[in-house]
Amino acid sequence: MYFKAIKNINYPFFDTHRNVKDIFNRVTTRGPKVNKTTLNSYMIKDGETPDILSHKLYGNTRYHWIFFLINEIVDPYAEWPIPNSELLPLVREKYNDSTGTKIHHYRETTGDRLVVDLDPSRTDIEPVTNYEYEFELNEQKRMILILKPIYLKDFVKSYKTLVGA
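and the corresponding structure tokens:
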């Protein structure tokens, strides 16, 4: 649906021209009418993918792109939360840390501020492991805005108008 609505352009390609999607024709949330009354906050559950959430909310998997558009998600692989079961494999690969227990950084226990210069005499700091760090980053991605189902039809119509479909 998202790409189907985007017009094709005649793009020069070496010594010929090709019909391709005009991927630079982007619509943001300032495009289709969205405001606080049309949106709700939503906490993504562990393992909930955009298509699963789309089916759950709108009765169809094809509206997953709306979550990306409303939340300005450009790279769903990096900006959508991964299942918790995939966190340790990610830590193993990213940090070469087989158990996820190597220290990523230190932070203050009272203000949660990052500690740059470690002073062993301080008692108000705690280590943050690679696994804890990635887990916290992943959890921050869970809170998104969703379009209330009642506005779905108008939103899609507005989107198609904006991209010239």
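(Above: one complete record from the training split.) The radius of gyration is 21 Å.
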